[in-house]
Here is the input.
Amino acid sequence: MTDRRRRSDTPSAAALPDREVRDVQRRLLDHLKHGIGKDAGDATPHDWYMVTARTVRDLLVETWIDSLRQADHSDAKRIYYLSLEFLIGRSLKANVLSTGVLDVTCAALAVLGQDLDAIAEQEPEAALGNGGLGRLAACFIDSMATVGIPGMGYGIHYHHGMFGQVIENGEQREMPENWLARGNPWEFARPEVAYPIRFGGHTVEYRDQDGRPRRHWEGGEEVIATAYDLPIPGFGAWTVNNIRLWDAKASKGFDLARFNRGDYIEAVREASASETIAQVLYPDDSTSQGKELRFKQEYFFAAASLRDILRRFLKRHGDLARLPEKVAVQLNDTHPSVAVPELMRLLMDEHRLPWGEAWEICVGTFAYTNHTLLPEALETWPVALFERLLPRHLEIIYEINARFLDDVRHRFPGEHDLARRVSLIAEEPEKRVRMAHLAFVGSHKVNGVARLHTDLMRAGIFSDLHRLFPDRIVNRTNGITPRRWLNQANPGLSGLITARIGEAWKTDLERLRELMPLAEEEGFRAAVMAEKREAKERLSRWLAHRISGPLDPSSLFDVQVKRIHEYKRQLLNVLHVIHRYNRLWAGDDVAPRTVLIAGKAAPGYAMAKAIIRLINDVADVINRDPATRDALKLVFVPDYNVSVAERIMPAADLSQQISTAGTEASGTGNMKLALNGALTIGTRDGANIEIAEEVGEENLFFFGLSAGDVERMTREGYDPKVFVASNPALARVLDMISDGYFSPSDPGRHRPIIESLTSGGDRYMLCADFAAYLEAQDKAERLFVDDPDDWTRRSILTIARMGKFSADGVVMDYAREIWGVQPTHPAGALHVA
Ligand SMILES: *Cc1c(COP(=O)(O)O)cnc(C)c1O
Here is the structure.
């Protein structure tokens, strides 16, 4: 292999040939001079970031072009991952590690008086997503490249990604995010890749040359979709895949001669209005706001992606009937599901295929991943909105539905209500298109993201569709990339692991099982413990200028980091913290603990924002109290994002995964924390159940209601007041919050939160789980304090048994079972270097 392929990723400058260091140094200075127009004396830290990124990008480009050419040449089936979100984070470290140039880059920068870690901090976050769903998309592209699947992600080139969060007077304030302000050195603009995307207008019927009636969509306005490409190298950089992000451009130039002064201004205004489509990511996690601009974003990116996919297919193949054989399109949630009627429209109206053939191609090409069963998150769009913006698609959806329901009535003649329930159109309270039903009917496979979630799909909202298509729903439990979440985030622990079992685990995570015997080795336990301590100190140092007061690295670091949502129950965590505070005051023997919470609330989600305020108010009182502050600290870490996650994961002792059973589809934060050696305290929900199966239930702390219990209690009538009345500790905690103990200047501030738990019915059953949660917390604490050595042993066993949750294995499973392709470089092939 040529020497641009990765060599190693542990710095060992001594072994480096001078020539290589000088070569990288020359490239850096070359970019500085010719790309930025400066010499080393004038370069700012950001300049150094730009030139380092460009230098690393140069190394990727050749393999990238090779990969694309190879995919074309081999005629391999192409995989397209359509996702409205890609939560990528920073790329410099990831790309340096993938290309194996860490040592030489560090050495070359050192000669120039620069430090790679400091430079990496200059990179803005590519935060083109809200949370788990967007991060999954980013992990999958990394894994597809690593295992050699020729995959491509399609998304939107948002000018403004996820908002920045600052905490002011305890409250979340959203700061506009502007990651492109100083240019993105990783991306390539492709202005020549441009597709007009239509909105509005009307449909006309006409007869083609053969006298057949056809329909055609015309009029309205057009927006141009234009491409930006982001190369994503697999580990070892044998394959470099691509994320193609669509930006929006006005379709009309300005004809200066035609416009008088007033028209000119109006024309510019109109043009920038059409460009608003790619302006901003919707910051809602788990709710659908139903905004028109969001609807346009969905169609815009689905339509541009399909146009691009068909163009590439038609370069090689004449026969569209072969599309499912050569192309798989994965729909990440329902956001791209308008792709189903769009592909039908392209096949019928533009390529003149009859309905039956077009439909077969469609279903053979698409597969759909469901991410949530929460009713408020399930997308539906008003028929009236389709009528106005996508009239042809509405006709097609009606036709899909008519044929589908005919079939349903034919197969189940006695069941009059069945057609109403499975219809793509909801009739009440207004006519709306059910996007999940559309995606389900238009796909050959529909997957849930953890076994419990998939079972609940079959039994719950998709039960009727499951009866109609019994082979369609399959499970593919989520995974994470071990490159970012262990190798990059936790170099200390990674080095320790590699020193003992080699580095094969980085592309074959099952190899971590070789650590199991080491869990019984005292020396290894001591080394892992020291590494955890070091990670906690590192996090404390980083947090030092963000929060007041140092953290105690010998205390138990208890971590809950994820979007703020009632179903994830950060509030239950806070209730426990207050209870500990009370116990400390009562003189109980309570071990020192640092509770870290981080996460963003959707800007319109009042209750989530109220919970952030409560966390900060409670932190304020507890952290100031001289009687307790040495034993209990509550920290809200602001602006949770991928880079902050990379700092927190290695430092966690305890991972809180405490969602109401049946509500968290999978979770992936649970996997990141466990892979870094945190023990889990959690409910039997999402992927927690499968993590327990792998690591052993004795090595985590399960508590509380199961999904079945929750369902039964809901059915039989749940009354939180019964639980409050029988639990004085809970009643006391609720009273303190309600009486303004944590908001003395505004005693009523937190009353609405408490009312949601009492008179409000406690939808997420915190009161029912409170007692069991305390018990599990005590059990965890006992182990941590009384037998730290055994804690570490369990922590090592946890790490060793996380192989199942590598996204590499997950995408290989998708490849075989859903996409019908075989990976070209099995992960094992990477070890020859
Ligand atoms: C992994 C990740 C998530 C998902 O966390 P969950 O605990 O699974 O909800 C959200 N945000 C960021 C930044 C992440 O890295």
Notes: Residues 75-90+125-475 form a domain with the Rossmann fold fold (CATH 3.40.50.2000). The longest strand covers residues 221-233. The chain has two domains: 75-90+125-475, 485-803. Residues 516 and 797 are 6 Å apart (CA to CA).
